[in-house]
Amino acid sequence: MRRTRPARRARTSLRSRSAVTDQTKPRPRITGVLLAGGQGQRMGGVDKGLMTFDGRPLAAHVLARLAPQVDELLVNANRNLSAWQAFGYPVFADDIPGYIGPLAGLHAALSRAAHPLVVTVPCDAPFLPGDLVLRLLSAWQGAGAGADVAVAKTAGRLHPVFCLCRREHVAHLDAYLAAGGRRVERWSEGLRVVEVGFDDQPAAFLNLNTPDELVRALAGTGHGDGR
């Protein structure tokens, strides 16, 4: 992703609290995508989003927070498809085999989304903001017609899987993947990226990647013993 210093990439940095959606314009319709196609290697190879967290599958918490914010909700998963279908949303696997990472899920989602804007979130972020989509969209619109991608940011750190992008950029992503690109933070090179500050909600972007992180997060909710 591009920075504003002299470099190959250009990025506009915006604090989301100062970005206000123009209420005189109809909000564009948005497809939300839960990315759950990983191997869960740091979780011992389990399908991470299906693990129980605070009495429900981890992904159920994410879906419950994302669903009210979007007009269509899709799930990207590569195994246990019947379990994922039980959540009640359309489920699709990567089009590119080999578990190459979240970009494969984004690539497949952009090819299937019914709406021109797509927001992605990981399946292991049960505390994602209830205003995530609004703030990404507000910053994206506030940056002008040239903006391509809006990415969440806290404490100077980008969270590139929490992003809003144009469906039309599937061709750009396809070319990046065909050239061997895999790093999620690099695929948007050549696009105009808007950084959206969420410093008021830093814990909202906590990813639960290991069993210990899952236990600590559960203890933090007051429903676990932390052991």
Structure notes:
- By secondary structure, this protein is α/β, with parallel strands linked by helices.
- The protein contains six helices and ten strands; from the N terminus they run E-E-E-E-H-E-H-E-H-E-H-E-E-H-E-H.
- An eight-stranded mixed β-sheet has the order 1-10-8-9-7-2-5-6, sandwiched between helices. A two-stranded antiparallel ribbon has the order 3-4.
- Helix 3 (102-112) packs antiparallel against helix 5 (170-178).
Topology:
Elements: E1 11-15, E2 30-36, E3 52-53, E4 56-57, H1 58-66, E5 72-77, H2 81-85, E6 91-92, H3 102-112, E7 117-122, H4 132-142, E8 149-154, E9 157-166, H5 170-178, E10 193-197, H6 211-220
Parallel strand pairs: 1-10, 2-5, 2-7, 5-6, 8-10
Antiparallel strand pairs: 3-4, 7-9, 8-9
Helix pairs in contact: 3-5
Strand arrangement, largest sheet? 1-10-8-9-7-2-5-6
Number of distinct helices: 6
Rg, rounded, reads: 17 Å
Name of the CATH superfamily: Spore Coat Polysaccharide Biosynthesis Protein SpsA, Chain A
Which stretches of 5+ consecutive residues score pLDDT under 50? 1-21, 222-227
What distance separates the N and C termini? 39 Å
Q: Characterize the overall form.
A: globular
Overall pLDDT level: 84
> Which fold name corresponds to the CATH topology?
Spore Coat Polysaccharide Biosynthesis Protein SpsA, Chain A
Strand-pairing-aware structural class: alpha/beta
Please name the CATH architecture: Alpha-Beta Complex
**Largest β sheet strand count, sense and barrel closure:** 8 strands, mixed
Percent helix, as a range, is 10-25%
Order of helices and strands: EEEEHEHEHEHEEHEH
Overall strand count: 10
Number of domains: 1
**What is the CATH class name?**
Alpha Beta
Q: Report the portion of residues in β strands.
A: 15-25%
